[in-house]
Design brief:
By secondary structure, the chain is an alpha+beta fold. It folds into three domains: 107 residues, Butyryl-Coa Dehydrogenase, subunit A, domain 1, CATH 1.10.540; 85 residues, Butyryl-CoA Dehydrogenase, subunit A, domain 2 (Beta Barrel); 140 residues, Butyryl-CoA Dehydrogenase, subunit A, domain 3 (Up-down Bundle). The protein contains eleven helices and eleven strands. Strands 1, 4, 5, 6, 7, 8 and 9 form a seven-stranded mixed beta sheet that branches. Helix 1 packs parallel to helix 4. About 5% of the residues have low confidence.
């Protein structure tokens, strides 16, 4: 990894440690929106994170998915409740409209994307944009949208919702859509059901073709961050918890379990960052690499979170400990853009199996 990415990582980690410690995460979890507008503004204004993927001519940094992956990893490590994945990844890649991109870059606009479309695969290639959102088509008539999107990431607080309808891409104001927030397993990330009932919409310049795989890659990096934090927690406990006069980390059975978690975390990191590199350098190949990262990283995070709870013992499932929060995040994230088995099915189809 380059020195620039290492510097970015250090900056984001230091900022989150200071401004969004576990106490702040829990405070936001208790908030109905799980959102702090002032904190979001600082991510945008002080660090410029919301505009990383936005072209420079629209006020962004013009970076690629490799930089976004670093940020997502650190946000996942800290369980930071922010609409970054929806806004700075999904919307930033889906939208080509300069006005909306400028709002994303300066933090004044929270946006999300309704994904749809069938997954298709041919030998050596996987295409598709659709994992999770619709139970019916969203139709457009006279500049108004009608339909339902049942599981939309951060749909409860988005200022703008981007979706495909007919043969175009449209932007709808959140205030013009009926929104029903869900009670989610992972309280650090919220989903909402959106109902478009003749909602006024503006046709915009946008493309949802690659958005799902871009988001899946960013999510994989986030899962790596969560898994890394689980490993750190387990290691710290193994060094300090004493039984039979020795730290439990000195026992071979514990060493083997920790080594297995380490192997999975490092392998997941390789998968996520290779997918990010491919997104920047060879986007036509991204669907295969995104499916690989999406499958492996989800299961690596689940394994790391589960093993951490096992090694911690009873304290790992108490409300006061963050281990249970990571387990909930790992479980929910593993289904966000399709489960690991769906990603493996895509890979199997791509190689003709």
């Amino acid at each position: 990894m380059s020195d620039e990415l290492d510097d970015l990582r250090a900056t984001v980690r230091a900022f989150l440690a200071q401004e969004c410690p576990p106490t702040a995460v829990r405070r936001l979890m208790a908030d109905p929106a799980a959102h702090d507008a002032a904190f979001w503004g600082r991510l945008a204004g002080e660090l410029g994170l919301t505009g990383l993927a936005v072209p420079e001519e629209h006020g962004g940094a013009g970076c690629g998915l490799s930089e976004l992956a670093v940020v997502c990893e650190e946000l996942g490590r800290a369980l930071t409740p922010v609409p970054f994945l929806a806004t700075a990844v999904l919307a930033a890649y889906a939208v080509h409209d300069g006005r909306l991109l400028a709002g994303i870059a300066d933090g004044s606009l929270i946006a999300t994307v309704v994904l749809d479309g069938d997954i298709t695969a041919g030998r050596g290639r996987v295409t598709g944009t659709a994992p999770y959102d619709r139970d019916g088509d969203i139709t457009v008539d006279g500049g108004r949208l009608t339909g339902t999107a049942p599981y939309v990431l951060d749909g409860h607080l988005a200022d703008v919702i981007v979706c495909a309808a007919g043969d175009g891409v449209y932007a709808v104001r959140g205030a013009d859509v009926a929104r029903t927030p869900y009670v989610t397993l992972d309280q650090t990330r919220r989903l909402a059901r959106l109902r478009f009932d003749g909602a006024p919409a503006e046709r915009i310049d946008g493309d949802l073709t690659r958005v799902r795989d871009v988001a899946l890659t960013a999510l994989a990096a986030e899962q790596v961050g969560g898994a890394q934090r689980c490993l750190e927690t387990a290691l710290e406990h193994a060094r300090t918890r004493v039984q039979f006069g020795r730290p439990i980390g000195a026992f071979q059975a514990i060493k083997h379990r920790l080594a297995d978690v380490l192997l999975r975390v490092e392998s997941a990191r390789s998968a996520a960052y290779e997918a990010a590199r491919v997104a920047d350098e060879d986007p036509d190949s991204l669907p295969v690499y995104a499916a690989l990262a999406g499958s492996y990283c989800a299961e690596a995070y689940l394994h790391a979170a589960g093993e951490t709870i096992q090694l911690l013992g009873g304290i790992g499932v108490t409300w006061e400990h963050d281990a249970q929060l990571h387990f909930k995040r790992a479980t929910a994230s593993a289904r966000l853009f399709g489960g690991p088995e769906s990603h493996r099915a895509r890979l199997a189809a791509a190689v003709g199996l």
